Amino acid sequence: MERARSVAQLWDWLPAFRAVAETQHLPTAARAMGVSPSALSRAVGLLEDAVGHRLFERVGRSIVLNERGARFLGAVRDAMRGVHSGLEFINNSLYVGPVRISAPIQWLRLVIPKTVDALLAQHPDLVMQAVTLSPTAVPSALRQGDIDLALVDVALEAAEFASELLQECSLGIYASKLHPLVKRQRVHWKDVSGTEYVAIAHYGHEVWQLRDTARRVHVDDPETGAELCKRRCAMTVLPDAFAPSLGLVRLQLSLRVTSPLYMLHRPTLTIAGRTEAVAEAIRESLD
After folding, report:
1. 8 A C-beta contact, residue 264 and residue 279
2. How many CB atoms lie within 10 A of CB 181?
């Protein structure tokens, strides 16, 4: 009971601490909480007095989470998630309402329709919400609960998340239907040497770095890259899983290069719910 009492006396200050810790800016946290900055500052001060340690460093008007504060923030997030999951279990709402997924747009188009079919067959009261965040924005969005699950095709530092390699996707060299090399039954590296190509995100960089290419265009998304390939009769490297859907044709040139697709979400605490159901549906959609 002593442990329970010691936690109970801190409980009222935890939402204020989390808001300040996640923004590290009192006015922003105050607006999110609907209270005054002074009230938030006072709550954080009371929490620090109660635990006997500073959780933030104050430099002028700035407030920065220190190492103790960062570790405590992780524990507070988990505690709040656990309570929220418990409430959903009590209310029979673990599989009711929105579940938010982030993925690169090309993978959304390939994975989400099949995932929705599999998911709603078992849990018809779930509502899937799909967005595309940059890989750098994914960790913060997962921590703060803005998304429940993310697909990423670049490696992320993900020690605090459940991370799973879903696929190693084979890559191919693609061009428009009008490209002169498309009709060849066999293409050699000498045929593409010095040819204009479009580098899309990170796909195939290690391939082209070894080759002599005349010109290079960099874009972030496959749709823009595919359009450039069509307009400029250029080539690009893309995963075989979705490149044909962009209207490109694979050249008959063998590549031994793959691109990973990872799935990330916050670790399951005690009660599995919508995130785990969506994760399983995604696995099934890629089988």
Report:
1. no
2. 18
DSSP string, 83-107: HHHHHHHHTT-TTSEEEEEE--HHH
Chain-centroid distance, C-alpha 126: 20
Query: How many C-beta neighbours within 10 Å does residue 107 have?
Result: 26
What are the pLDDT digits (tens) for 190-234?
888 778 888 887 787 666 655 555 567 888 888 999 999 999 888
Mean predicted confidence (pLDDT) in 121-128 = 86
Contact between 263 and 166 under an 8 Å Cβ cutoff? The reply is yes
Calculate the average pLDDT of the chain: 85
159 CB neighbour count, 10 Å cutoff: 6
Segment 68-76 long-range contacts (CB within 8 Å, at least 24 positions apart): 69/21, 70/21, 72/17, 73/17, 73/18, 73/21, 73/22, 74/160, 76/14, 76/17, 76/18, 76/21
Burial environment of residue 128 by CB neighbours within 10 A (0 to 12, 13 to 18, 19 or more) = middle
Tokens coding 279: 């994760």
Two structure tokens written together for 166: 């879903």
H or E stretch covering 249: strand 249-250
Report the C-alpha gap between 225 and 174 in whole angstroms: 11
Task: Name which of 29, 28, 2, 3 is nearest 16 in CA terms.
Answer: 29
Q: Which two tokens stand for residue 41?
A: 């500052």
Give the predicted TM-score (pTM) of the model.
0.70
User: For residue 258, what are its two tokens?
Assistant: 């793959």
Name the token pair of 226. 């595919």
Number of neighbouring beta carbons within 10 Å of residue 123: 17
